[in-house]
Amino acid sequence: MAFGSNTLDVSVWRGDADGGKFESFQVPSQESQTILDVVVWIQQKIDPSLAYRYACRVGMCGSCAMSVNGQPRWTCRTHVQKVLRGRRVEIAPLRNLPVIKDLATDMDPFFEKWVRAEGVFHPTLTRNDEIARVSPVDQRRVEADAAVECINCAICYASCDTVQGNPDYLGPAALNRAWTLVNDVKDGKRSSILEAVSQEGGCHNCHSQGSCAKFCPNELSPITSIAGLKRETTKSFFGRG
User: Fold this and answer.
1) Helical H runs in the chain?
2) Which CATH architecture has domain 108-237?
3) Among the residues of 5-150, which ranges form H helices?
4) How does pLDDT run across 47-75, given as a tens digit for each residue?
5) Which CATH code fits 7-105?
């Protein structure tokens, strides 16, 4: 296909864990076109072997996250016209995660760190007990509400330079999740969570650069959650928590 005013020059990363390179595709420019639309068009019209991941296409699941012109984004919500450089755009897999193939990354390290951070709910009641009542204006509930809308897309993880430099660092998403549980009065292991996030690779390794908050599509602020964990772990260490 000849390159013209109605054509996009799209560079797509092709490869696996052993390496790869960018491959150029000529894609028709269309109105209200998203980056995910471009990737799907390439896979359906040019190269069916192109590997990528998506599900909902409406910004609810986060599975379509990729790097667009070097920045992590939900590709289903990223309109081509907003990120074009001339007529060109570059699409790559998320940073800081192993590449399975092409644009698809292995999410296991991301979720393993959630487990290390005790980012799972620890119930204190059974289904036979009355549901615990929590006031929506309780300060701890307010803190949890501000951080609870994470959908596990790993964009903050991909944007984090601390993760890149320290593979043991739990990362902003896992720590953000831990913060919601620290503030959940129904969770039964607050002290265990604080201990988990204060270990090597925990909240105190955060350099407070703020890329997690800058790139979060849900406008969460993991850096604020991490600051809260730093305060609470310090108080706990001195017996004040």
Assistant:
1) 35-41, 80-83, 108-116, 139-145, 155-159, 161-165, 172-182, 190-197, 211-215, 222-237
2) Orthogonal Bundle (1.10)
3) 35-41, 80-83, 108-116, 139-145
4) 999 999 999 999 999 999 999 999 999 99
5) 3.10.20.30
